[in-house]
Design brief:
9 helices; binds magnesium ion; alpha/beta; six-stranded parallel sheet; Undecaprenyl pyrophosphate synthetase; binds 3-methylbut-3-enyl trihydrogen diphosphate
Length: 254
């Protein structure tokens, strides 16, 4: 009972995660439940993105990363890929104004070169336009896979060594970090996945080494800021020990 009593039910704004990453999953199943095409689910997902982004900024979250399209998603039917890319272009165009109004900066991680030209152009325009916004950074993971990102980092490090700008003995976590596409973004304290799937699907493998994982059965198109709120409250009721003992942590916080 005493443990239950100590459980907080509302957000402590002084202990917010700085960075939340979300694997937005379940669009297809949401559409199927309504006997609609998968694309309908992706359109529904845009509404969830809008509310979550706005909610996160209002709560005071500094970085929000959304996994929107994985390297592996290129293996989906062409019709679905085309619809997703089209949706992406339209959403970016339509929402840049909202990002400006909410002082939100847009960034992207992933193999952006592999996106259709129009998509890449619109994305870069929105990134440039919002570059000076300060309230929150919204990071879109597009054509992203963590293994791809890690291999890219290894190539950069190998090149530095080859050009004798770096000694092998000097390679450390900090240098490796600086070669990742997330080099200017802190690691997420909280990773959320929707739709009841309990896996990482090649997302931020290095960066989530010590993240708290939160899984919810809510399908992405149904996800709203209230669900984000629930995830943060759940996160704030956990003890992050980083290898230490509970007693050590309690002493540090006393
Ligand atoms: C997530 O929803 C969106 C993307 C991966 C682009 P899904 O499309 O994976 O939906 P389910 O998992 O089939 O329900
Ligand atoms: C992960 O979702 C990728 C994104 C959310 C963009 P998937 O639905 O593609 O993941 P798997 O393949 O089922 O693991
Ligand atoms: Mg899925």
């Amino acid at each position: 009972m005493s443990v239950l009593k100590n459980l907080k039910t509302s957000i402590n704004t002084e202990r917010l995660p700085r960075h939340i990453a979300i694997i937005m999953d379940g669009n297809g199943r949401w559409a199927k439940q309504q006997s609609k095409l998968r694309v309908f689910g992706h359109q529904g997902g845009v509404e969830a993105v809008r509310d979550t982004v706005e909610g996160a900024a209002e709560m005071g979250i500094k970085y929000l990363t959304l996994y929107a399209f994985s390297t592996e998603n290129w293996n989906r039917p062409k019709l679905e890929i085309d619809a997703l890319m089209e949706l992406l272009v339209n959403t970016i165009n339509k929402e840049t104004r909202t990002l400006m109004d909410n002082d939100i900066r847009l960034q992207a991680i992933g193999n952006i070169e592999s996106l259709p030209k129009k998509c890449k152009r619109n994305l870069e325009e929105a990134i440039n336009k919002t570059a000076n916004n300060k309230r929150m950074t919204l990071v879109l993971a597009l054509s992203y896979s963590s293994k791809w990102e890690i291999i890219e980092a290894v190539k950069k490090i190998a090149e530095k060594v080859e050009k004798q700008k770096l000694q092998i003995r000097d390679i450390n976590e900090e240098i490796f970090n600086s070669c990742l596409s997330t080099h200017n973004i802190p690691n997420p304290e909280l990773l959320i996945r929707t739709s009841g799937e309990h896996r990482i699907s090649n997302f931020l493998l290095w960066q989530i080494a010590y993240s708290e994982l939160y899984f919810t059965d809510v399908l992405w198109p149904d996800f709203r800021r209230e669900h984000l709120n629930d995830a943060i409250v759940n996160y704030q009721n956990r003890e992050r020990r980083f290898g230490k003992t509970s007693e050590q942590i309690e002493k540090e916080n006393a």
